[in-house]
Design a protein that fits this description.
Elements (H helix, E strand, L loop, with lengths): L25 H9 L3 H17 L4 H13 L3 H17 L3 H17 L3 H18 L2 H17 L3 H8 L2 H7 L3 H17 L3 H17 L3 H17 L3 H8 L7 H17 L3 H15 L4 H17 L3 H18 L5 H14 L3 H19 L13 H15 L4 E2 L2 H14 L1 H4 L7 H10 L5 E8 L3 E7 L4 E7 L1 H16 L4 H12 L3 H6 L2 E5 L28 E4 L18 E5 L12 H14 L3 E5 L5 H6 L7 E5 L2 E2 L9 E5 L2 E4 H5 L7 E5 L6 E4 L3 E4 H7 L4 E5 L5 H16 L4 H12 L4 H6 L2 E5 L7
Parallel strand pairs: 2-5, 5-6, 7-8, 7-9, 9-13, 13-16
Antiparallel strand pairs: 1-4, 2-3, 3-4, 10-11, 11-12, 14-15, 16-17
Helix pairs in contact: 2-3, 3-4, 3-5, 4-5, 5-6, 5-7, 6-7, 7-8, 7-9, 9-10, 10-11, 10-12, 11-12, 12-13, 12-14, 13-14, 14-15, 14-16, 15-16, 16-17, 16-18, 17-18, 18-19, 18-20, 19-20, 20-21, 21-23, 24-25, 27-31, 31-32
Length: 769
Amino acid sequence: MVQAGCGTSSPPPASVSLEACPAGDEPWRAALEQADDQAAVEALAARLERVDRRCGEPWQVAWIQGRLRTTLGEIDRARGRLTVALERARVAADPVGIARAGDDLAWLEYHGGRLVEAEALYRQALDAAIEARRADLQAFVRNNLVPVLLDRGKVGQAVELFARVPGELEALGLTGAARGAAYNQAVLLIELGDAHAGQPLLEAIHARSVEQGDGWTAAASAVVLGNLHRALGEPVASETWLRKVDRAEPELAARARLGLARLALARRAGAEARELADQAVGLAQGRDEPLARLARAYAAAAEVVAGDPAGGLRALEALNREGRTAGQGGDAWVGWWLEGRARIALGQVVEARDSFQRAVALLESQRGSLDPGGEGLRFLRERFEPWADLALAWLGKGPANAAPGPVAAVYDLLRRQGAAWHGAPPPSPPAERLAAFQRRLPADTAVVAYLLGEEQGVALVLRRKEAELLRVGGHGEVRGLVKEVRSALVEGGGAEQAAVLSRLLLAPLRRHLAECRRLLIVPDRELALLPFGALPLPGAADDEPLGLEKELSLLPALGLPSPATAALEPAPVLLAGRSRFGNSGRPDLPWAAWELSHLAGLWGSRARLLAEDDLTFDRLEALPLASFRTLHFATHATASTRNPQRCGIILGPGQRLGLERIRAMALTDALVVLSACRTGEGEVVPGEGVIGLGRAFLEAGARGVVVSLWPVADRSTARLMVAFHRALASGASPARALLEARRDLLSSDPDAARRSPFVLLEGLDPTLP
C-alpha cells in the first residue's frame, strides 16, 4: 500500500531558515522536499549536522535525517535517526514530533516484517496526532496503519479505521495523498474480495496516474489489477496488467513477478514459476520482508510442481518455523497451506491434515471479526482452498470414505465454517456431536453438504444410521456450468449443462438419493444459486428432474431445521402485493392480482390482505407481524449479485423493503414466500452463502423462505403459488408443498415445472450440537 505522510493542509513558509530553529514540522519538511537530487540531499545532510548542534538537538533534525537516510536506502541508519527523533519528541512532550517520527519509524518496522512493533508505533503516533489536533497527521497515520492491520489478520479493524481516510485527505486539499489513499481503499476492497467495487476504482486510478506521470501509483494499480484478474480466473488479463510493471520500483516489480509466478504455477510450469518467484525474492529482500517471505513460499511450491516435492517441503517447513518465531502475519496461512499441498504430493496425508488445519485456523481468526452482511469478508477463491484441501485430505484417495474418524472431522470442519449461523461448536468431541446430529435426522432424510476445491470437491452425506464422504466435481469445472445452466433455463433450455452438473454433483450420491424422500442441501459458493431441482435425478427414467421426485430444501450452513417449525400452523396468513405500477417504469403484473385474489379465497378469514396502494412501509410495519405464520409477497423485487444492499421488495412508488428493514421485522417462526423475480439472488460469500433477501428474512426469525433464482413468468408463478398454498392448507410441510405444487403445474406448464426456479431456504435449529 501507499504511505501517506508527506504534505500538510497548507504550503509551508519557505522563507523560514532552519538555522533559526523553527518550531513545528512544516519548515523542516519543506527543506526535505527541496532536496530533489543527490547533491542537494548531501548538502542538506551536512547542513543538518550544523543545525543540530546550534539548535540543541531538536527532534526535527533527527526526523529529517531519518527521512534522508530512508531516501538513500540506508535503512539501518534511518531507523537509528528516527528512533532518536522519537525519543527527543517524547522528552520535549511534543505530540507533533511523536506523530511524525513514530509514523515514519513504524513504516520501516512494517517493511522489516516487525508487525507487532509497527502497529504499536502507529497507534502511539495516532494518539499523538489527535492530541496535536492535526487532521492531516491523523489521516496519514490511519492510512499507513491499514496494511499493518491487514497483515496481522485484523481485517475488521482495518475496514473501520480506513472508512474515512480518502475523504479526510481530499478535504484537506492533499490531492496526491488522497489519490494514494484511494488506491489503498481499492486494495482493501479487493483484499475483502469485493472485486466489483475495487476493479473500476483501480482502473480509473491507473488511467489518471499514467496521465499525470505518477509512475509509482500507475505501477501499483497495475500489480493489484493483475493479481485480481488472476484470482478471478482470467489469466490473460492478469498477465497483461502484470507485464506493465518494470523494475523502476523494485518492491512493485517484486509483486508483479510474484503474480506472474503464480500464473505459471496454475499452468503447472514449475521451472518458470520458480525463476519468477526467485526474482521476486531478490527484489523484495531488504525492502519488504513479509513480501519476500511470501515469495519464498511460492518459490518452494514451484519446486514441488517442478518435481522436487521433498526440497519444496523442506523450504516451506523452514519458512513456517520462521513465521512462528516472528509472529503470524495475515499471509501466514499461505505457508501452511502450501506445506500441506507439498505433503500431499509426498503421500504424507496425516501430516498434511495438520498443515491444512493450521491454515484454516488462521483464516478462521480473520473471518471471525467481520459481519458478512455488512463489510463482509469476501474470500477470493484461493483463500477458500485450505478448507476444501483439508476435507479432501480426510477423504483420502478413493471415491468414498465412511470411516468414523474422517467423517467426524469433516463434520466438525463444516460446523465451524457455519459458526456465523449457529455459534462456535461446543468443546465435546466431534464424534459425539455427529452422533447427536444423526439421531435428530428422520429416517427418510439425508443432509448433503458440499465443499468444493478448485480441482475436486467433497460431499458430506449424513443420514440417521450412516454417514460418508464422497468425491464430487471441483469448483473450477462447476462454476462455469452453474452460470450456463441458469442462463439456459431462463430461455427454456439447459438440459445438456444440467446433465453434466448432475453427473458431477449428484451421481456420486446415487444410492442415497434412491433411498431418501427428503434432501437438505448445504451448497458451497455458487451452488447456492443452482436450481438443484432442475438437475436430472441419476437413474431416473426420462431424465426426470430431482425437483419432481424429492422434497428439497437449502440450508445456509450445516445443521437441521427446527423440528418444531415443521408442525406449525400455516395461518394466519399475510397476503401483500401490488399488480399496478403506474408510471414507475416497472411493468404491471396482472397475474399477481389473480394470485392474491385466489389466495384470499383459499384462506378466507385466516388471511389479511394488504394490496395495491395499501402496501406501504407504514401500513406493513403497523401490523403485528410476529402473529402471522405465513407472509406472502407478490410484487416486483430488485436483486444484485454485487451489492446486497440493493436487494429489496417493491412496495410502491419510492418504497423498497430493503435488507435492514427486513432484519428488523422480528418474525416468529413464520414462513415467508417471495413470489417475484430473482428473490433468491444476492452476493455469494464463501462460507456464508448468499447475502440477500432470503438470508435477511431468516435473520429476522423466519423458519423458511421461498425464493426464485431468476426472472419468473407471471402466469406460471401465480399458478404455482396457488397450488403451493393449497398444499400448505391441507397440512403439507413447506418442502412437501413445493414438491406438490411443481407436480400440479406439470399439466398446465410442464417446462416451468421442470425448470424449478423456486427453492425453499430453511433456518437452522440453534439447539443442535
